[in-house]
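User: Teach me something about this protein's shape.
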Amino acid sequence: MEVCYQLPVLPLDRPVPKHVLSRRGAISFSSSSSLFGAPDPRQLSQRRGAISYDSSDQTALYIRMLGDVRVRSQVGFEPERRSSHPYLCIDFRTLHTRMGCGASSASSGTERRVHRLLSFQRYLHSSRLLRGIPQQIPLHILDEDYTGQARCMLEKVGTWNFDIFLFDKLTNGNSLITLTFHLLNQYGLVELFQLDMVKLWRFLVMVQEDYHNDNPYHNSVHAADVTQAMYCYLQEPKLAKSLTSFDILLGILAAATHDLDHPGVNQPFLIKTDHYLATLYRNTSVLENHHWKSAVGLFRETELFSHLPAEDSLNMERELGSLILATDISRQNDYLSRFRMHLDQDNLCLSNASHRHFILQMALKCADICNPCRPWELSKQWSEKVTEEFFQQGDIEKKHKLDISPFCDRERNTVGNIQIGFMTYVAEPLFAEWARFSDTRLSQTMLGHMGLNKASWGGLLQEQTPVSEEPGPGADTGDAATGGTSSKEIPQGSRES
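Assistant: First, the predicted structure itself:
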């Protein structure tokens, strides 16, 4: 049974402008609102949600393969035939679950009586309880030794080799809550912004719950890892002496919520299955818009900032959206070109609020894809997790006779060739420019780790290639390793180690 989903929005203490709330109490997407407005049709006619780069640009081609939304023309879906499309029944709320296919009419009736507006993740939890399905993951009570070790780790939260996987175990799977609360408290933001402790804790708990921990990669541990990386960047000298308390609060909250309620499938999947979110956001930054609006819903449901003036609260939501939307991989070259232009002209002035906000956007982008820059033991785990999530999507696409998305076919791709391509065309250009902006020990450490990690993946690919089939100097090493991956799927460029 399909259950319509609306963002959780509770009544505020003060009147809310009509353009903010719709008649059903959900967030409105009226074009008259700069905060909740739909994309400008003129922009859609220019971009239609895709990056507009020449196909000969290999970097742009790779990024387009990761995030391009022009899949409708490839599969030939016609708008007027959407109502009869066979894949409308695909609901990503249950992609990674083992719930029974059938449901009694009684339980369906019970579900209809649920009045609380839930995220997909909390809807899934509530439906399990309503159907009498017990919690699959048992809760373990950790003794003081574990909590003591977690506190010791937090003393070194600003180090780049921080092991978020170990920290998550020591906090019993509560790494995002514990880490975010610690950082907010360490900066004195709880007291400065007079945040109610109960509301703040409830907000953080709900944020962590709304991440799908069945996802191999886009889960609460990834959000905690990005938050920890963001903290490292905020500590860099150029930022530490320039950012305001509001900037820091915004950066931490954006990192914690940047993938909120991620379904574990990418944007092209949502578009080619005609998912309603793709329609809602007009095929443009579909997931990022959803993450942002989900975070806004939690702000309002918990009334975390209800004590602030209405204008300040709306500004917080607007600025948060600007940061989260910057993580859209299909706009990677847009931001990178602007960043490079600022550095070439040496005109970044961090006393300027708009420039500080742009640097926060770049910092969040770096934090979001910093896995190749971590030490090998951590980077390898993240690489395997994100690739497994790709492959799970590919399995779903095979099952439903859909075209398999790039990098999602486990029979044609490996972790190594995907990671080498990602580092070459996405991570290296971004972190090279970040090092130009902030030439510090951390920046050099990140570039050093990425070079070593890239060489390690290249070595593993060579080990997997039979000697008799060893490619020539100009051959594609990815083909031999993956059983025929074409250059159209993994653009080949310089393979410096």
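Now, about its shape. Confidence is low (pLDDT under 50) at residues 1-55, 68-117, 468-497. The chain has 23 helices and no strands. If you'd like, I can walk through any region in more detail.
User: That's plenty for now, thanks!
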